[in-house]
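Checklist before submission:
- one chain only
- standard amino acids only
- sequence pasted in full

Submission:
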Amino acid sequence: MPEISLFYGIRITMYYNDHNPPHFHAEYGGYRALVDVVSGCVIRGSLPSRQLKLVLAWNELHREELMQNWELARKEQPLNRVTPL
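Returned file contents:
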């Protein structure tokens, strides 16, 4: 599972050939969440409130890059790093 960003102790990853909708995985201190790139909603899991706010703000700033990475992952091509907060 390639790491595409790391900020404030939050690790952001994407799986190759993962299921729709386009999403990424966020991990922080034992918490894990799947976040929908388009809607910015948590699909599954949870993060502490502060970290969730940071992840959702980051998603808003980098939605286009995340969608590009989603397409690359679907084609099993190398993913691009996304600028942290």
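Reviewer check: The longest strand covers residues 23-28.
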